[in-house]
Amino acid sequence: MEHLLEDITVIDAATYLAGPGAATILADFGANVIKIEPPGGDGYRSLVGAYPVPYHWLLTSRNKRSLAMDLRSDAGQALMHDLVAKADVLTTNFMRPQLEKYQLTYETLKKVNPRLIFAHISGYGLKGPDADRRAFDVTGWWARSGLMEFIREPDQTPLPMAPGMGDHCTATALFGAVMTGLYRRERTGEGSFVSTSLAANGVWANGMALQGVIAGNNIGTYRQAKGWPNPFSDVYRCSDGDYVVLAVINTAREYPALAGALGCSHWLQDERFASVGSVMKNRPDFHLAMAEAFSKFSFAEVSKLLETAGVTFSRVTPMGDIIEDEQMRANDIVVETDDEGEGYPLTINSPITVAESPKRKPRRAPDVGADSLAVLREVGIEEERIQALLANEDLSMEELKRLWQIGDTNGFHWVSVWDHFYANPLKDRENPCFEGVAAMAGLAASTSNVRVGCLVFCALFRNPGVLAKAGVTIDHLSGGRADVGIGAGWFEEEFRDFGYGFPPLGQRFDQLEEALEIITALWRGESVDFKGKYYTMSEAVCAPKPLGLRLWIGGRGKQRTVALAAKYADGFNMPYVSPEIAADRLSRLQQACEKIGRDPAEIDTSVNLGFYMNSDRQPDIDPNGSLTGSAQQAVDLIGRFQDVGIQGINIAFRPPVDWDNLQVYIEEVMPHFAR
């Protein structure tokens, strides 16, 4: 085997840090780790807020695969049992009520898979009054263990800890527990319940001091009464602002060497400091003397003196210096990833090595649900059931951004969002669906090559002046790459739910035409006075002017849609139509242009096609307007559209995105057609 644990499958059903951290170490050694996330993504992904790089997620979700599923549903719970049946390890930090709610208790899963290693992390342990109490490492590991009380000066408010400090320690302990369980299974053939807690690891980390309490020596209380008890293991400031921490353990032997190194051998003749015993009796004075001595040297100077004298010490290293620390690099503590994406050239290695078993090269953490299809197919879930399980999901923002980047870097001409309040087709109002203007602005900011658009904004959802301003703003944000599509709207449920009523089709087109007249006038730089049946403008001006903004009209209508496109549009898009219907609409567009004296060649044309290439999945939009079958069949269908005069093909995705076949489309279909 190339990697030690490559024949081990791990279901990572934990969240935040300690449990997933243990799964990360398993993945580093080659385990097949399947990260379970809700369809909207693990909450830990967004912990850094507005910072553009989710660095915490990149650290503990590397080398994993993401499966998005809803554990609240019966179908999701049944699927989890199917996964567990073929797994070796499950990691979780769910509390008892959650384990019961999701049918994930050890007693339940042991019946599904008697060889399963069930690895559980709790805050304070599984028994006692706090067994069901929620915890994070700052509460369970840091505050509850006595560490927080000890690491402070007298009367100082206790200090917070470094982010994730206790979680990573606990993750390492859980990794050890998992390996112990696997070893036991190797000997007995049986699975087991292994566990640890934040509190147990915090108390273990503070074990030396706590054992002192047991023996009657409470150094926490002592420190609050008298300060730090040992000046030979304290921190001192150098002249250049760096700090040195000492670790003088054999004080009788090392003290004279330390005094000599600092140029203070006279301390040994001072009755206050002549011996270690006298130093301890006069430690406040000695601490001041030490601080004064260190303040005369830079760190570089004092480090040479201490090295020569054989005194154990370290620089208190700022975090920014760790990444380039030669020692950390030489020992693969900080490692290169070879990742070309944003913010991930290096990562922090897990702290265990086996010389004869190399670790995997770190691989960037996946997007939400990026591996759902592949994982479900690998474990033998039937295709019909897969589609039923994933049918109620919609694209997460992570998936949208991934699609945008693929479009921007693989030769696509443009990328479009849509303007709906609910996912289409409507299956669950709680499925994610992002607002169109904000999504298009995000698309513009996230790309640099493709044109960015929306097919199409519903004219009735916004005042036309507001939509005109939004379009210009996004055009400038993108550097002149914006295309704004406008239509009359059709999705009755979202109209009614969001308070727009649902006007008759004729009225919706009347409002669309008024909106188009206002928007195009504003974009031409005119001062707009307009009084219509639905909208009024009074000397309205849209500044600045557009840079490269283009107007599209979208729809399948034979009459008013075509007429409005001929009068106002730079582009005309037809969603989910066959080549024959597209040919008919192009003919009607040409006739409408001739009536008003416009050259139809001024108007670009395109169609939307659903993307179901190489899939057994049945299109949930018009199959006559979808790419189905092989790459060659896709080439043939696009060629038919090209033959009737269509200039552009927009492939439209419905979840789950088939990333593998999207790559096939890029490599085997797109090269047949000029951009």
From TrEMBL:
Keywords per UniProt: Transferase
Keyword Amino-acid biosynthesis in record: no
Cited InterPro entries: CoA-transferase_III_domain (IPR050483), CoA-Trfase_fam_III (IPR003673), CoA-Trfase_III_dom3_sf (IPR044855), CoA-Trfase_III_dom_1_sf (IPR023606), F420_OxRdatse_Rv1855c_pred (IPR019952), Luciferase-like_dom (IPR011251), Luciferase-like_sf (IPR036661)
Pfam family, one: Bac_luciferase
Residue ranges of every copy of the Luciferase-like domain listed in the record: 396-618
Gene3D superfamilies in UniProt: Crotonobetainyl-coa:carnitine coa-transferase, domain 1, formyl-coa transferase, domain 3, Luciferase-like domain
Superkingdom field: Eukaryota
GO molecular-function term, one example from the UniProt record: CoA-transferase activity
Family: Belongs to the CoA-transferase III family.
Protein name as catalogued: FldA protein
